C-alpha cells in the first residue's frame, strides 16, 4: 500500500501534514516581514503559525513515519516559502530556482509513494 491510504486516520494525517507545511511557509514569511520582531502583526502571525505548524506536524507523526513526514513537511514549507517570496518580497526567479523547486516537489512525491503506513 502506498502512503496515500484510504483509511481515514492516515489520510487525515497526510492532509494535516500538508496544511502544516503551508503553515510553516506562513511563519517563515511572517518572520521575514517582522523585521527582527520589530513589527507587531507579522510577529504575532509568526508565533501563531509556528504553533499551528508544530501541532499539525505532531498530529501527523502519530500515524506517519517521522523520516517521511518531516521530509514532506519541510519540502512543502520550503517550496511554498520560495514561491510566495517571489511576489511578496520581490525575490528573483531563475531557471535554476524553478528546476530546484521542481526537484523538491518530486522528492515529496517520492517520499509519499515510498513512505506509507503507520509509524
Automatic annotation (TrEMBL):
Gene3D superfamilies: 1.10.3730.20. It comes from the Bacteria. Its main location: membrane. It is a multi-pass membrane protein. The chain crosses the membrane at residues 12-34, 40-61, 68-89, 95-114. GO terms for cellular component: plasma membrane. Keywords: Cell membrane, Membrane, Transmembrane, Transmembrane helix, Transport. It holds the Pfam family Multi_Drug_Res. One of its GO terms (molecular function) is transmembrane transporter activity. It is found in: Cell membrane. PANTHER family: GUANIDINIUM EXPORTER, SMR FAMILY PROTON-DEPENDENT DRUG EFFLUX TRANSPORTER SUGE. Belongs to the drug/metabolite transporter (DMT) superfamily. Small multidrug resistance (SMR) (TC 2.A.7.1) family. This is Quaternary ammonium compound-resistance protein QacF.
Amino acid at each position: 500500500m502506498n502512503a496515500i491510504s484510504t483509511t481515514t486516520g492516515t489520510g487525515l494525517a497526510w492532509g494535516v501534514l500538508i496544511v502544516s507545511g503551508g503553515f510553516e511557509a506562513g511563519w517563515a514569511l511572517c518572520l521575514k516581514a517582522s523585521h527582527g520582531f520589530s513589527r507587531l502583526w507579522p510577529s504575532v502571525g509568526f508565533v501563531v503559525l509556528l504553533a499551528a505548524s508544530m501541532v499539525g506536524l505532531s498530529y501527523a507523526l502519530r500515524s506517519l513515519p517521522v523520516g517521511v513526514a518531516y521530509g514532506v513537511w519541510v519540502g512543502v514549507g520550503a517550496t511554498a516559502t520560495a514561491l510566495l517570496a517571489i511576489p511578496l518580497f520581490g525575490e528573483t526567479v531563475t531557471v535554476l530556482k524553478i528546476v530546484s523547486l521542481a526537484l523538491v516537489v518530486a522528492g515529496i512525491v517520492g517520499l509519499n509513494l515510498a513512505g506509507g503506513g503507520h509509524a
